[in-house]
Backbone:
């Protein structure tokens, strides 16, 4: 079985294309879907088993792209026939280049195209470091695309509604255009093949068979992206694309080698998870692709025994229990998976989405396959208090199904704090909790985390004395608290002379001081201060570590009540990644959120992309998630990390 992923912007026709490709021979297996984000369609074409993994478009669904591509032999990028929509394909082009996987571009809905195909390819080329090479040119009649010419075979095809295209004579008016386009294609391929370059220099005719071989070699090495044309809704150009996939997509051995190369020292990769779901009454199911022969129930995978395993092939007549090299497999006879096959694993809770597996270990997917940072934060609260424990269990299991979900405990409320890709992702998570785990929950905004600090130094003396029979408690301390620069944190020093406070008790004073600063004032911790123990007294019998700890803590509390303090808000350092065409609109967006722009630069490893470095209040981060999606049409994303605290201004959000 060979596997490819179909991906692209929303409304580009991916589902239609997947169904059209799978329906060419009429032999389709059962389609499996995962929370409306990913779908797997096994099918047969010309006696060979295939599987198409379709990923829904949209920024909040792109986290599923990495696992799917990792398990795939190739990718089909489906894009609209509109130069203005090329920027929507920019995130996919970027990830495909990082993956190093063979890529086919399919320019869909050519029946609706009004502009030149050259303009569409030029717009896409803006966001690709690889050359995008046209493999077909359209045939137009009265301004409408009615067919296409294959530039390798030089055959012309006329589109027929819902039927395979018909072979026709190359129209006379197309001959010059076809020659020019074929020359451009061959020149692009010749950059990677010396023999072809020699033939072009000597003006020798390039045979179709040789051009096919060079095109296949160049594609499998990930050196160019070939572009095909069609209209999947009418089945136009679909057969030509599928035949190219059959001829040029590598076997599973190349995929296994590519993945093993990304994990030096991992050993032999035997399987990778490409989709996962929670099914009521069945539990967690993971779709595994076998990358080595002999994967079957009971064998070790990922350090534990593999549970139930059901193959998902289309049961094509030509399968016959053989792998891609024509060799029979004991696994096939036992109901397991051949190399390249995909199966549904159940009762294997140690398997998760986002990992590749050897027999005795597991490893995360390569960096390019990891989801973008989940920067949208929400608290998740059960509707019924009795579901608190069930919610915790459900969220823990959800982490194995969705690699884009991050989970921690909110320090203020103690509630579960989720890190997500956006509001649609949140909606999907809540729906999964209710439908598959039976836990009703709702989301709440994360309360802002504010701190306080001093504006001026203050001194405070505190004596702790207690007598209740037997040994008493005595400690006397004199401290000074003064502000430090933003981000300096906490410092403690002592200037005690003459042993007024023994060395053994000074650490206890510091512990009490830290405790008081962490508790803070009105629930807000105190930061960026220096506390100096200047003097004190002790008693030879009644003094103790405990007494000096209490004295240090209460001295700080009293000092804070008398001091002039200011409210601080956390400031985050963000790197915003977006196509260059949107960069001009990001600066006023950041300014409107009370942020500060530090710099703007082109990204060296991503054609057509800029990175904007900014400082932004944490309270504005969720707003940025919404605004950035709108400002960049869903293509932008950002990384965030705490930078420092800054005095809250009157127009900033007040603490809850």
Residues:
């Amino acid at each position: 079985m060979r596997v490819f992923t179909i991906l692209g912007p929303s409304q580009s026709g991916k589902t239609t294309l997947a169904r059209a490709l799978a329906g060419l021979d009429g032999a389709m297996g059962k389609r499996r879907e995962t929370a409306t984000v990913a779908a797997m369609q096994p099918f047969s074409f010309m006696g060979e088993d295939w599987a198409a993994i379709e990923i829904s478009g949209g920024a909040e669904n792109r986290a599923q792209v990495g696992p799917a591509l990792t398990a795939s032999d190739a990718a089909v990028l489906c894009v609209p026939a509109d130069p203005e929509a090329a920027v929507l394909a920019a995130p996919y082009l970027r990830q495909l280049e990082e993956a190093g996987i063979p890529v086919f571009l399919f320019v869909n809905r050519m029946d609706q195209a009004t502009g030149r195909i050259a303009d569409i390819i030029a717009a896409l080329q803006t966001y690709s470091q690889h050359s995008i090479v046209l493999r077909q040119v359209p045939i137009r009649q009265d301004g409408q695309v009615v067919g296409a010419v294959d530039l390798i075979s030089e055959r012309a095809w006329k589109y027929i509604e819902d039927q395979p295209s018909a072979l026709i004579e190359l129209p006379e008016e197309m001959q010059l255009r076809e020659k020019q386009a074929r020359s451009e294609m061959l020149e692009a391929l010749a950059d990677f093949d010396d023999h072809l370059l020699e033939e072009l220099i000597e003006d020798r005719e390039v045979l179709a068979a040789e051009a096919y071989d060079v095109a296949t070699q160049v594609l499998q090495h990930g050196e160019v992206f070939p572009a095909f044309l069609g209209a999947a809704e009418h089945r136009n150009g679909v057969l030509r694309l599928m035949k190219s996939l059959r001829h040029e997509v590598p076997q599973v051995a190349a995929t296994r080698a590519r993945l093993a190369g990304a994990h030096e020292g991992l050993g032999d990769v035997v399987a990778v998870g490409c989709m996962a779901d929670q099914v009521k009454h069945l539990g967690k199911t993971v779709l595994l692709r076998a990358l080595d022969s002999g994967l079957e129930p009971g064998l070790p995978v990922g350090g534990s025994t593999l549970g139930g395993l059901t193959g998902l092939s289309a049961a094509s007549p030509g399968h016959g229990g053989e792998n891609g090299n024509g060799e029979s497999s004991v696994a096939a006879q036992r109901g397991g998976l051949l190399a390249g096959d995909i199966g549904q694993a159940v009762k294997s809770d140690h398997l998760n989405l986002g990992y590749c597996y050897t027999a005795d270990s597991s490893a995360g997917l390569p960096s390019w396959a990891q989801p973008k940072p989940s920067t949208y934060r929400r608290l998740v609260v059960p509707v019924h208090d009795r579901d608190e424990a069930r919610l915790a269990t459900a969220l823990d299991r959800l982490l194995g199904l969705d690699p884009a979900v991050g989970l921690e405990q909110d320090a203020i409320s103690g509630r579960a704090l989720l890190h997500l890709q956006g509001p649609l992702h949140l909606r999907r998570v809540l729906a999964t909790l209710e439908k598959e785990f039976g836990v009703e929950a709702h989301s709440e905004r994360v309360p802002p985390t504010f701190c306080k600090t001093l504006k001026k130094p203050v001194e405070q003396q505190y004596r702790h004395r207690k007598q209740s029979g037997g040994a008493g408690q005595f400690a006397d301390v004199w401290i000074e608290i003064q502000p430090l620069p933003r981000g300096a944190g906490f410092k403690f020093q002592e200037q005690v002379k003459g042993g007024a406070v023994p060395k053994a008790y000074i650490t206890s004073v510091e512990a009490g001081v830290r405790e008081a600063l962490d508790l803070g004032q009105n629930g807000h911790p105190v930061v960026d201060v220096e506390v100096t123990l200047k003097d004190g007294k002790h008693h030879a019998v009644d003094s103790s570590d405990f007494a000096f700890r209490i004295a240090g803590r209460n001295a700080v509390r009293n000092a804070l009540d008398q001091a002039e303090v200011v409210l601080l808000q956390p400031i985050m350092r963000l790197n915003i990644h977006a196509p260059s065409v949107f960069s001009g609109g990001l600066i006023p967006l950041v300014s409107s959120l009370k942020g500060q722009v530090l710099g703007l630069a082109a990204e060296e490893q991503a054609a057509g992309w800029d990175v904007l470095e900014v400082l932004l209040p944490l309270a504005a981060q969720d707003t940025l998630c919404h605004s950035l999606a709108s400002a960049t049409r869903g293509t932008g994303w950002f990384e965030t990390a705490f930078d420092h605290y800054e005095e809250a201004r009157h127009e900033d959000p007040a603490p809850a």
In short: The first strand starts at residue 2 and ends at 7. Confidence is low (pLDDT under 50) at residues 316-333.
